Amino acid sequence: MRNLFIGAVMALASLFGVAAHADDTPAEKYTVLTSPVPVSEPGKIEVVELFWYGCPHCYAFEPTINPWIEKLPADVHFVRIPAMFGGIWDVHGQMFLTLEAMGVEHKVHTAVFDAIHKEHKMFKTKEEMADFVATQGVDKAKFLETYNSFAVRGMVKKDKDLATAYGVTGVPTMIVNGKYRFDLGSSGGPEEALKLADTLIEKERAAKGAGQ
Predict the structure, then answer these.
(1) d(CA 61, CA 65)
(2) How far apart are CA 53 and CA 185, in angstroms?
(3) pLDDT tens digits, residue range 136-157?
(4) d(Cα 209, Cα 204) in Å, to the nearest integer?
(5) Cis before 67 (ω within 30)
(6) Thioredoxin domain spans which residues (predicted)?
(7) Is pTM, for the whole model, over 0.85?
(8) Residue 91 CB neighbours (<10 A)
(9) 44-53 pLDDT, tens per residue?
């Protein structure tokens, strides 16, 4: 489970904005946040993907981003955050966070995506979700218990605060090290988004090395 940020830090981080862009990449490719957001693992370069299970673009991005994630170096920490803009977005986001809290998200993430986009399942209720994840080897009763737990409610609030701090209005959106925001449209497509992420990772790594 990702570390929870203290409220005071998140309140400060939520004051985001647009600043000047770096010189080594075209300005239209990404936005620099004027108030950097703290990363969840200090000392590592963090890459965040905000997504929604119901988003066809997020689903189409999976075969491209997943192999990239597997090859990330040890100094890079990848985090998925569900975007929760209300309604079914919140329901699906809480489902993801429940699975994450249970430590089984990595086992069923693809199956949930496939169920929505190939089998046209809606997952509007926790009971429907629980029935499905049970077919994937997840304990149904434990899922239902965890879904409304204090820990998951805290994770929901934290991730909503993060989306606000990042200034995210759509998905899929990527954030590098709490500073740089871009999406598939601004970067030029799935492959281009990951190339941009690599460039920004290297930029942060170089800056970190220069500061030591």
Answers:
(1) 6
(2) 19
(3) 999 999 999 999 999 999 999 9
(4) 9
(5) no
(6) 14-202
(7) yes
(8) 20
(9) 999 999 999 9
User: Do 33 and 181 meet the contact criterion of CB atoms below 8 Å apart?
Assistant: yes
Q: Which helix (H) or strand (E) holds 91?
A: helix 88-101
Task: Give the up-direction half-sphere exposure of residue 168: CA atoms within 13 A in the CB hemisphere.
Answer: 32
Which residues on adjacent β-strands are paired with residue 51? 82
Joined together, the tokens standing for residue 202 give 């290297």
Q: 57: helix, coil or strand?
A: helix
Q: How big is the CA angle at 40 (ends 212 and 63), to the nearest 5 degrees?
A: 105
* Residue 10 binned pLDDT confidence (cut-offs 50, 70, 90): very low
Asked if 129 and 184 count as a contact pair (C-beta separation under 8 A), the reply is no
CB-CB neighbours of 187 under 10 Å: 21
